[in-house]
Amino acid sequence: MASRVRRERPPLVAVVMAALATLLFVLPLAGLVWRAPWSSAWRVVTSHDARQALQLSLVTSLCATALAVVFGVPLAWVQARVAYRGRGVVRALTLLPMVLPPVVGGTALLLALGRRGLAGAPLDRIGVHLPFSTAGAVLAEAFVAMPFLVLTLEAGLRSADLRLEDAARTLGASRATVFRRVTLPLIRPTLIAGAVLCWARALGEFGATITFAGNLPGRTQTLPLFVYVKLEGGGPDAAIVLSLVLVAVSLAVLVGLRDRWLRAL
Amino acid sequence: MSLHAAVAVERDGFDLDVTLDAEQGHTVAVLGANGAGKTTLLSALAGLVPLARGKVALGGEVLDDVSTGVHVRPEDRPVGVMFQDGLLFPHLTALDNVAFGLRARGAGKAEARRVAGDWLERVGLTHRSAARPATLSGGEAQRVALARALVTDPALLLLDEPMSALDVAVRADTRRDLLRHLASFPGVRVVVTHDPLEAGALAERLVVLEGGRVVQTGTLAELAARPRTQYVATLAGTNLFRGAGRGHEIDVGGQALVSATALDGDVLAVVHPRAVALSVVHPEGSPRNVWQGVVEDVDVVDDRCRVRVGGVLPIVAEVTAGSVGALDLVAGRPVWVSVKATEVDVYPA
């Protein structure tokens, strides 16, 4: 006797609401594509201002990612492996920038690291000026993007098989060797996914950058800031084209990461 | 190079307190149910968990001593571990897995690979050197795991449930191979398992663990002949009773068992299921122990049937399948149990 799988039709309400939700995501993108000045796109992208902003964005976002990796990996390791009192609190604090309004983040950075700030005052005295500098832009981007790396990596480390590390130790590997030859290779996909996610977030940061690092062309005017300036200042063509560049990059990241990202989180 | 361990470990509400001694060139099997503490014991010997109390010494070298604060780290101990499921590094080939221990101890890549290659040949897996663990069969992974543990020339080899991850079909062959490799290993071997047959096949001496404590040690035959706890009796597949002995009678919770041996005091009595006879009418014969019960369960093992009889004195009887059919022994059937006094072996508890 042949069995037939009967496929039930999904409920109409669910379908309609899902379609509307999808529209909410697709419409803005469609708007960008529809209004894009395709004929002058290349000229816009290769103009001096645009190239400067693009170059600056690349530099700051890559530096921010490097910073996030250098500090985020040890942090993720400690959070995942070392049980200490207050670990939950530290986790909440390190994830705060993910939910905090970026402008608030930038303001907080200013109050902490500004000329008269908590840590900024002593830094200022020794000649380190972070606000309104490229380094400041890097810091602002790292502040908002690092949690993405730490979260992804911590999840990956938690789900890693600790017994493999035990096995490595019984074979004569010191803890450092275990980390280098067992832990790290096994979390490599997660680390890459986290780093790419972090980079994409850093690239797109606006609020914290403009508040803490300011909007100085060539120094702190990253691509998102440039788009904003152009939109306000009557250069919608440039704004649209460069927005599409950012959208394309974000889409590429998401598509490239899809399986890994979902698995890591 | 013998092992002397007296370990006490406290972990998550579970506590282990075990003394274990093993001689060089000998295999000791630690037998216990899941949760009895076998893996904790293994981890303690490997140095992976801290001791609450006690001492571990291998060939005169103190690896752990709580009283003096000595704790040799796992990576510095001459201990090799063969883990359940092999626990091979998934990102390395079989060859690099085996070479790992040597490289971790400072050997160069080429030299380590050469020695690893020799070991792979010894376990008959040269043709799988470049394979990733995910593509290895259970038996192959286990052999690679063994080679990996032995390549660093340990003084103590710990094996955690070496057969449990294997198909029943390959187990006999693998057991024979394992025995061969173990026999040629000069150090001390401790096997941890829940399977009494595996324990009996691999080791000369068995140590039974229950609730974190050693309840009995001996050969498999000794354990089966004179079990000291219900768990050991179950492992051996025999009936165990405990009661107050007064001459030839043993008071086992209200019911009396008569034995040909006279012993007073707290005693254990063992009755092999083969010595238990069942009948549907009250038997009029020589057996001194006769009582009525109800069939609870019938289990077919090979060509024999194990009938579990409940009631005033629960017991397991081993009868032929023919008898089960002829007497219609099904769950709920009232049945008479008879055991000869000469089949009741009594010994002090």
Fold and architecture overview:
The complex is a heterodimer of chains A (265) and B (349). Chain A is an all-alpha fold and 265 residues long. Chain A has a single domain (47-264), classed as MetI-like fold. In chain A, 77% of the residues lie in helices and 0% in strands. Chain A has twelve helices and no strands. In chain A, helix 3 packs parallel to helix 7. The model of chain A has no long low-confidence stretch (mean pLDDT 87). Chain B has a six-stranded mixed sheet with strand order 7-8-9-3-10-11, with helices on both faces. Chain B has a five-stranded antiparallel sheet with strand order 2-1-4-5-6, with helices on one face. Chain B is built from nine helices and 21 strands. Chain B folds into two domains: 3-230, P-loop containing nucleotide triphosphate hydrolases (Rossmann fold, 3-Layer(aba) Sandwich); 238-348, RNA polymerase II/Efflux pump adaptor protein, barrel-sandwich hybrid domain (OB fold (Dihydrolipoamide Acetyltransferase, E2P)). Chain B has helices spanning 38-46, 94-104, 109-122, 138-150, 168-183, 196-202, 220-225, 230-236, 321-327; strands at 3-11, 14-22, 27-32, 53-58, 61-65, 70-71, 79-82, 156-160, 188-193, 205-210, 213-218, 239-246, 249-252, 255-258, 265-271, 276-279, 289-301, 304-311, 315-320, 334-339, 345-348. The radius of gyration of chain B is 25 Å and the shape is elongated. In chain B, helix 2 packs parallel to helix 4 (138-150). In chain B, a hairpin with a 2-residue loop joins strand 10 (205-210) and strand 11. Chain B has 349 residues and is of the alpha+beta class. The two termini of chain B are 35 Å apart. Classes of the chains: A mainly alpha (265), B alpha+beta (349). Chains A and B meet through helix 8 and helix 9 of A and strand 7 and helix 2 of B.
